[in-house]
Amino acid sequence: MQSIWLIFQLLFCLFLGFILARRLPQWLEKLAFKVLPYFTYILLIAIAIEFSQTLHSISSPTQILSSAITLAVATSVGAFLCCYLLFKAIGYQPMQGKVSAELLLGSLLNISYAFIALACGYSLAELASHFQYPLHISTWNLLLVYMILIGLDLAYSPLDRSWLNWKIMLVPIGCIIGSMLGAVAISFFIGNISLKDLIMLSQGYGFYSMTGIVVTELKNAQLGSIALINDLFREILAILFMYLIGWRYPRSAISSAGATAMDVTLPMVKQACGNEFIPHAMVSGFILSVLAPIAVSILAAI
Predict the structure, then answer these.
(1) Calpha distance 302→200 (Å, rounded)
(2) Per-residue pLDDT tens for 41-55?
(3) 3-state helix, strand, coil in the chain (%, to 5)
């Protein structure tokens, strides 16, 4: 029942934000869109504070980092290869394109802000602990506010009905199946996490500001930490794939980007892959952004 209630809250807030779009006062909508890019960092600071309070009770933090990075590599490569094979099966050939080192460095700089936010949250929690000051922040309530903001953003996303064809749908399908297969592949090497939990962690699709909180709420802080780090590194790997080989295999690179293809990595899609692949990124990112909280919540509750 708890999992059903949590899923309902996430979907309700997402839907609430979606239906409030264009109905709120214009000044409030402008404020929401100004806050949205920075709210992720607020959420990450809160997540780091919560995780730091349980870090001392976790027996092997190094093992958590190792497991998370291994999972991130496996799921990202799995999504890339699965999408590549799907499009190869229907006769699509590699493309041609160009790379911008300047935009790549700028994108990696933006990702570094996420790690800075985590470091700030962790440092703040440790400082509060040192002075024996009780520091309590509800990451779940912050996540619900974030889902409302995401709903507002999705309502203004320039999706077009002509984009919803079966070939474009192969991009998110490749991400879903490939991520799952990647988790299964490394289950033989990661003995401290069950196959069921690995599959659950694989379905975050890079949505790091959501998965860490949901997994912590439904499972435990250790798996929540792995979920957060895994999806952070999936986003980093998505940027690298986009610029290293995305110009030649654009659909596969977009698939590996998961939920981030609609926002964080969208500028990279435009630069490295070309404007003709923006529909692929928008549709795939939209579907995976909506699916991620549902899939993770359901799998965590099973």
Answers:
(1) 10
(2) 888 788 788 777 666
(3) 80, 0, 20
Check if the beta carbon of residue 149 is closer than 8 Å to that of residue 66. Answer: no
CB atoms within 10 A of CB 19: 11
The pTM score is 0.77
Buried b (16+ CB within 10 A) or exposed e, 44-69: bbbbbbbbbbebeeeeeeeebeebbb
Question: Do 296 and 6 touch, CB atoms closer than 8 A?
Answer: no
Alpha helices in 131-220 (DSSP H): 139-155, 166-186, 195-202, 208-218
How many residues are listed for the chain in this entry? 302
pLDDT in tens, 95-145: 665 556 766 676 677 678 878 888 898 899 889 888 888 787 777 788 788
Instruction: Give the separation between CA 90 and CA 254, rounded to whole angstroms.
Output: 18
Token pair 């991620």 is found at: 292
- At 278-292, the pLDDT tens digits run 888 888 988 898 899
